[in-house]
Design brief:
The protein contains 6 helices and 7 strands. By secondary structure, the chain is of the alpha/beta class. It has a 7-stranded parallel sheet with strand order 3-2-1-4-5-6-7, with helices on both faces. The radius of gyration is 17 Å and the shape is globular.
Length: 248
């Protein structure tokens, strides 16, 4: 499996899942745009990749802003001439209930977690269509898209939207040979928006260990590879078997 010569845009790539996807893609020969809102985070991952012999640039952007998204596409195309792969990974969580969330918190969570992937996919897909040779888009969803929770009402709602955004994009972009899929992690690496893993975080799955960012990165690599060319519009759950069991 190789990504030799292929150009990937990865949002939220300054830490955790996004960072390991960037590392893995670069190790497979891909050219990686590390997109993050925080300049220092993205720059550190891009520098690490270059120090290991890979190709990477850091791009600072707020994916909920149209002009920032257009700038991502422009920067990457100016650097490498094309975009072959998009990984929509960036997200924020509210960790609030319906009673204590404010409208501003609701709007912010949906803006980054649902509207952001839509915007980045829209402008990257336009670029892919201009190129004329197709591409791959992977949206990072969540097991929170499948279940209600006692917190994070906006995050759960946004990730539920990501699942049907994926299906709708898959239908509309298939004629352009752009494959769209999603993956749904459960408690992999650090919590959304956090840098550190909470050692007291409860783990319920069938493997008996916490999920690692590289666990998800490997599945994403498969989905953008030729090995997955017949997989379209699907969500792959990567949760160590959490969803297979009724936990009481």
């Amino acid at each position: 499996m190789t990504l030799q010569g292929r150009v990937a845009v990865i949002t939220g790539a300054g830490r955790n899942i996004g960072a390991d996807i960037a590392r893995l893609f670069a190790s497979m020969g891909g050219k990686v745009a590390v997109v993050d809102m925080v300049k220092e985070r993205g720059a550190a991952i891009a520098s690490e990749i270059r120090s290991s012999g890979g190709e990477a640039i850091a791009v600072v952007a707020d994916i909920s802003e149209v002009e920032d998204v257009k700038a991502i596409v422009g920067t990457v195309v100016e650097k490498w001439g094309k975009i072959d792969i998009l990984i929509n990974n960036a997200a924020v969580s509210d960790n609030k209930t319906i009673f204590n969330i404010t409208k501003e918190e609701w709007d912010k969570t949906l803006a980054v977690t649902l509207t952001g992937p839509f915007l980045v996919a829209k402008y990257v897909a336009e670029q892919m269509v201009r190129q004329g040779h197709g591409g791959n888009i992977i949206n990072i969803a969540s097991t929170s898209a499948y279940q209600g929770r006692d917190s994070a009402i906006a995050y759960c709602s946004a990730k539920g939207g990501v699942l049907n955004l994926t299906r709708s994009m898959a239908v509309q972009l298939a004629p352009h040979k752009i494959r769209v899929n999603s993956v749904s992690p459960n408690k992999i690496g650090s919590p959304v928006g956090k840098d550190e893993v909470d050692p007291n975080r409860s783990i319920a799955n069938l493997t008996g260990r916490p999920g690692l960012p590289m666990d998800l990165a490997r599945v994403v690599l498969f989905l953008v590879s030729e090995d997955a060319e017949f997989v379209v519009g699907q969500d792959i759950i990567v949760d160590g078997g959490f969803s297979a069991k009724m936990w009481v």
